[in-house]
Amino acid sequence: MSGLTKCGKCGGGMAISGSTDGRVRISCVRARDAGVCDHKRSYYLDRVEAVVAEAFVAVLSQKDVMQKAIGTAIKKRREDISGEAKAYSRAEGGMGKSEGPACNNRAASGC
Ligand SMILES: [Zn+2]
Asked: Where is this region: Disordered (predicted)?
């Protein structure tokens, strides 16, 4: 969960702020360290993780949402591959023009 949880009030990161009865608590770093956020409440990390896990499973069980997400990911990946292939072709074409000595005697060298 590190780096993934954000304060609902200021958008700052949430970090471990202590523990109670062996359970880790997290709170807004901006409230805790800088005092620039007034969201002082802390949350049990295990409870936050449980809520996120429940929401994740709920999203995964929605076939139409997953199909759309997978379709979007495949489209993005194809665009990335196409862009990489074009960049490779440009680089490969540029190498042929600028690298290597000029061939002055094709018959003797086979170049
Ligand atoms: Zn905050």
From this structure: 87-111
- What's this model's pTM, rounded to 2 decimal places? 0.57
Among candidates 25, 33, 20, 23, which has minimal Cα distance to 12? Answer: 33
Neighbours of 69 (CB within 10 A): 13
Closest CA to 49 of 11, 14, 98, 90: 14
Question: What pLDDT, in 10s, does the model give residues 67-109?
Answer: 999 999 999 999 999 999 999 998 888 775 555 555 566 666 5
Query: 6 alpha carbon to ligand 1 midpoint, in Å?
Result: 8
The count of structural domains within the chain is: 1
Q: Does residue 95 belong to any structural domain of this protein?
A: no
Measured distance CA(107)–CA(111) in Å, rounded: 8
Structural domain boundaries enclosing 1: 1-85
Distance 54 CA to ligand 1 centre (A): 24
The rounded Å distance from CA 15 to ligand 1 centre is 11
Distance 14 CA to ligand 1 centre (A): 8
